[in-house]
């Protein structure tokens, strides 16, 4: 088999890239090691930046998203039992969209299938050797000769691992905490997201639909989800999200999904080796506090698709050569923002000095227009290149 771009991974990065290439008449083969069902049910991110939605809309990928999404114009920071709203749209002219990553992935898979270009799930033993992509589907080994490979296979994928370590520089930071995330069959208790700083640790109140709430708790990094029965989770959420407002009440309901996600900051440079381009989580990870991972994956492939479009239109490989440099500017801005939000909102030690610094920063970003604008501008995201 032959193709122009071999794409490893059918997550948001791989699938958006495949569609942008299709719109430019560029052929690709997408392979994923998981089943379609698994990929479509993986509960992950929920916040889309304004620019991500614009890009998906322009690519014709946002019909259901625009019908079913929840548009938010602000977020709340809760500390010392009082909520403080950051008016995102008032400060930046932009908004955020709440739409589950797995719903987006369903839309992307359906758009790919409509193009009748190859998308293969349950590919075993996926390997990249130069521009050769090999894998096994139903016991049949296939080799695809590609002009280029896009490694969109997430943090634990094989693409990055195949690059000689001497060719890469890795920047990494691990955090002593993780997020315990739950999806609950309960109407959200507030209209906007609530990021809560509490002496017992961070909590986040988010949502998916008018009937489904998404909630997170800061927990130690080595947490076993089995130690968190539903009643313990609700107790802790009630405590950390409580406030001096008699109208506030957390809505509880059956927990539909529960998992622990590690927190890490990670960047590999450059994001390219010979004819292999890394995009999304394969190249970088941010802690989830800034809600950026998915958006960054889409921003990478927007640049990559433009580079391939330029190349196949016979206009040279200037953009492809600058791919890493262009992407890394946004990656590091987002790394800083995600680290900063994480440092401001999580309890790390019992040091009263750290606590006072965090509270001072929270008071500052919720009282100074300049500081709130900095937070808002980063949170809604910068326009795509
Ligand atoms: P992925 O979505 O990871 O997709 C990679 C794809 O590659 C997967 O489909 C995988 O099956 C496939 N793959 C892996 N290895 C191979 C292989 N060897 N061969 C073939 N295919 C392979 N971000 C937020 O902003 N907010 C959140 O709340 C949030 N929660 C998260 C929770 C978890 C548990 C995780 C892991 C991530 C979370 N993220 C969150 C981050 C966000 O979901 C990611 O940044 C986003 O999914 C990146 O998209 P991607 O396409 O680069 O990678
Ligand atoms: C969600 C996840 C995040 O990481 C975040 O910062 C905000 C919301 C969510 O899953 O809804």
Structure, described:
The protein contains twelve helices and 19 strands. It has 385 residues and is α+β, with helices and mostly antiparallel strands. The strands form three sheets. Strands 1, 2, 8, 9, 10, 11, 17 and 18 form an eight-stranded mixed β-sheet that branches. It has an eight-stranded mixed β-sheet with strand order 6-5-13-14-15-12-16-19. A three-stranded antiparallel β-sheet has the order 3-7-4. Strand 5 and strand 6 (82-86) form a beta hairpin. Helix 1 runs parallel beside helix 6 and helix 1 runs parallel beside helix 8. Bound molecules: flavin-adenine dinucleotide and 3,4-dihydroxybenzoic acid (DHB). The site of flavin-adenine dinucleotide has 31 residues, from helix 1 and helix 8.
Chain-wise SSE layout:
Blueprint: E1 2-8, H1 12-23, E2 28-31, H2 36-41, E3 47-48, H3 50-58, H4 63-68, E4 70-72, E5 75-79, E6 82-86, H5 88-92, E7 96-98, H6 101-115, E8 119-120, E9 124-129, E10 132-137, E11 140-151, E12 169-185, E13 194-196, E14 203-209, E15 212-220, H7 230-241, E16 255-269, E17 272-273, E18 276-278, E19 284-285, H8 293-312, H9 318-321, H10 323-345, H11 352-365, H12 369-380
Parallel strand pairs: 1-2, 1-11, 2-8, 5-13, 11-18
Antiparallel strand pairs: 3-7, 4-7, 5-6, 9-10, 10-11, 12-15, 12-16, 13-14, 14-15, 16-19, 17-18
Helix pairs in contact: 1-6, 1-8, 8-10
The structure holds flavin-adenine dinucleotide (FAD) and 3,4-dihydroxybenzoic acid.
Residues 8-14, 31-34, 39, 44-45, 101, 123, 126, 152-154, 157-158, 261, 280-281, 288, 291-294, 297 line the site of flavin-adenine dinucleotide.
